[in-house]
Write a structure and sequence with these properties.
- The structure is a single chain.
- By secondary structure, this protein is an alpha+beta fold.
- It has one domain.
- Helix content is about 35%, strand content about 20%.
- It has a 6-stranded antiparallel beta sheet with strand order 6-5-4-3-7-8, sandwiched between helices. The chain has a two-stranded parallel sheet with strand order 1-2.
């Protein structure tokens, strides 16, 4: 594989310092050399000219509403922050941090209201759905390959008490993010993403589906990112993959989770 770098991550905190701004614009120029004049003009503009004038997005929930309406509001809020195309991820996300610690990051994301990438959107979606116990949440992480480069993507899978699956998230591609509760099985949901990847000429290498995320986490509890791993490049047939997904689907909506563990399936 090549040494492809998909984006940079800001480590300066807020307000963003001059060095980070320069790194972002330099990276943007490298990735978009055909737009050199527009990028240079923007970088050299005064701060007053580049500050957004639009109001901060607000997330409100009605006490009584359907799961479909609620999830649509969550996704609309994620969309209002917009996907981050700048080449600089503004927030450092520690995937190994406790859920409670990540809650502090979510407050910063909502206060800053800057564009976000898929990982930040997934963390934000977890907290916006917290307490809605009729929804079971689990992460779905994808690894794909295109032109020798490896790409990683993550969304938040949703299982409703009505028996339907869907997902929340953000992506550069509209068909790799939000999925309404229209899928009667997990295998149909994953197959929908698989077809989308193929449509973008990506070779899907593997999908990792996490364990259900607690609505009432204890102090040091972390997001359980790994429940089952499905390698698409190890010779499994579509029937084999669907069988694995259907088995895991039954685990997700089961009320009993023995030791809260399931062995990952890998070859």
């Amino acid at each position: 594989m090549s040494d492809y770098v998909p984006f940079l991550t800001s480590k300066s905190g807020f307000p963003i310092n001059a060095e980070t701004w320069k790194s972002m614009f330099d990276f943007c120029l490298k990735q978009n050399s055909d737009c050199k004049k527009q990028i240079t003009d923007l970088y050299e503009s005064s701060q007053e000219n580049v500050i957004s004038k639009k109001p901060l997005p607000v997330f409100r929930v009605d006490k009584i509403e359907t799961a479909e309406n609620f999830l649509n509001k969550v996704q609309n809020y994620l969309n209002s922050l917009e996907y981050n195309y700048t080449g600089m991820q503004f927030f450092q996300v520690n995937r190994g941090a406790s859920i409670i610690r990540l809650g502090e990051l979510v407050k910063t994301i909502m206060l800053a209201s800057l564009p976000i990438k898929c990982l930040e959107a997934t963390i934000l979606a977890i907290f916006l759905t917290q307490g809605q116990e009729y929804l079971k949440r689990f992460t779905m992480s994808f690894v794909s390959e295109f032109n020798g480069n490896v790409f990683r993507h993550v969304v938040l899978g949703i299982y409703s008490s009505s028996g339907s699956f869907g997902a929340l998230g953000l992506s550069r591609r509209e068909n790799l993010m939000y999925k309404p509760l229209n899928f009667p099985s997990l295998s149909l949901l994953i197959n929908n993403y698989t077809e989308a990847y193929h449509g973008h000429y990506h070779k899907l290498l593997r999908v990792k589906i996490g364990l259900p995320i607690s609505h009432r986490p204890y102090m040091l509890e972390k997001i359980p990112w790994k429940g089952v791993v499905i390698p698409f490049n190890k010779g499994y047939t579509k029937k084999d993959i669907n069988n694995i997904l259907d088995q895991y689907s039954r685990f997700i909506h089961s009320k009993q989770q023995k030791n809260n563990k399931i062995l990952p399936i890998e070859k």
